Amino acid sequence: MLTANLYFGVLHGELSKVDLAAFGVSLNSLEQGEWLRLITGSFISHDADMLVRQLMLAAFAIGWFEWRNGALRTFVMFFALDVFGTLFLMFGLIVFIGLLNFSDFAGLPNTYDVGMSAGGFGLIGASLYYLSWRKWAMTAGVMTLVVKAALFPEPIADLAHLMMLPTGFLAEALVSRALVKFAG
Using CA atoms, how far apart are residues 7 and 1, in angstroms rounded to an integer? Predict the structure, then answer.
């Protein structure tokens, strides 16, 4: 992540609109078959502030989950949640919002996004599964995300965060139960 952002000059300014359009992910880019963007977009940030937030999110979410479950499972879970979350966001929520004809959201299919927060928030949700007070933590997390979205709206990122926190929790519940059942 750091190498990609150094390459794009993010540490010294913002990601250029040309690079965002070339490597970011949008509904239209995926509809045109540009599937590699599901990966490239995860490693890029809009600016240095976002990069710092993403590195902290990665250290917390990926680090804790890896400590708990190992590197291979973390790798698979992160990329599965990140790719699934982005696909569902683009082909589910953004398409649905488009069908509702909200003028404020008309440009979402053409909006490029970057960042690893779909996978990161998915892993946070997965990590909450292990807490004894997980229902309270999930409720507090979702409420915090709703307040953030109301005060500082970023439609694509906010939808991804709100969707992936509980999705990660449910995914971990299913995987953990399947592993226990498989182990006997």
Answer: 10
| 9 Cβ neighbours under 8 A, 6+ residues apart | 15, 16
Dump pLDDT digits (tens) for 93-145. 999 998 898 888 888 999 999 999 999 999 999 999 999 999 999 999 999 99
Q: How far apart are CA 38 and CA 148, in angstroms?
A: 25
Model pLDDT, residue 184: 63
Token representation of residue 133? 């007070």
On whether the CB atoms of residues 15 and 114 are closer than 8 A, the answer is yes
**What whole-number distance in Å separates Cα of residue 56 and Cα of residue 110?**
28
Q: What is the pLDDT of residue 7?
A: 94
Q: Which tokens go with 36?
A: 């590699």
> Given 3-state DSSP classes, what are the helix, strand and coil percentages for the chain, each rounded to the nearest 5?
80, 0, 20
pTM (two decimals): 0.91
Among residues 169, 96, 95, the alpha carbon closest in space to that of 127 is found at 169
Side-chain-facing half-sphere of 82: CA atoms under 13 Å? 25
- Through-space distance between the first and last CA atoms of the chain, rounded to whole angstroms: 39
Amino acid letter at 8?
A: F
